[in-house]
Amino acid sequence: MSFLQEKVERNDLIRVMITGSPAPQQFTAIVEEVYSARVFEGNVGSEIRFVGKPTHWGQRSLAVGQRALLFISRVSGRWYEDAWEGDLPIEEIDGSEYALYRVAHERVLTFDGLSDSLRASCRPHPTLPITTCFNLAALECHLNRLIKQGLP
């Protein structure tokens, strides 16, 4: 199975900018990009309200002002972030945009489903020891390819 394939198969994927957190685990965000919309009906520039993943077992919550790739699904009329590492925060490092994956770089390099292009595009985070940084454009290309493969 390719890197993040299971998340792509189970969720819609959007890129957001977090604009508010009115209550614990509750977020509002502006949609910057819609990669897959099997269920998601928002457009670029629209606002979404969603329930964030639980912050346990080392998972970190999104913060107001942060941008992220977000794996979401709809349950009982509400949007939910995938419960296990359902977001990849976006950060600028050395002048380039990276999506942060909260697994140590040495471990990520051993993943069977990691393509050569993604392997070449990733690096350890400069300050977070258990975080791998994927070049955002390379990761978007990989995710778009997975989305297209999954279309009927």
Could you give the topology of this structure?
Layout: H1 5-10, E1 12-23, E2 26-34, E3 47-51, E4 67-75, E5 78-81, E6 87-93, E7 96-101, H2 105-108, H3 116-121, E8 122-124, E9 132-135, H4 136-150
Describe this entry's structure for a reader.
The protein is of the alpha+beta class. The chain has one domain (about 5-150). It is about 20% helix and about 40% strand. The protein contains four helices and nine strands. It is globular, with a radius of gyration of 15 Å.
Please give a quick description of this structure.
This protein is of the alpha+beta class and 152 residues long. The chain has one domain. Helices cover 20% and strands 39% of the residues.
The largest sheet is: 5 strands, mixed, barrel
The number of strands is 9
Report the principal-axis shape. Answer: globular
Helix content: 10-25%
Q: Name the quaternary structure.
A: single chain
| Distance between the first and last residues' Cα | 18 Å
Order of helices and strands: HEEEEEEEHHEEH
What count of structural domains?
Answer: 1
Strand content: 35-45%
Give the mean pLDDT: 93
Structural class: alpha+beta
Uncertain residue ranges: none
As laid out across the biggest beta sheet, the strand order is 1-2-3-5-4
Query: Which value, in Å, is the CA radius of gyration?
Result: 15 Å
The count of helical stretches stands at 4
Characteristic terms for this protein:
five-stranded mixed beta barrel; 152 residues; 9 strands; alpha+beta
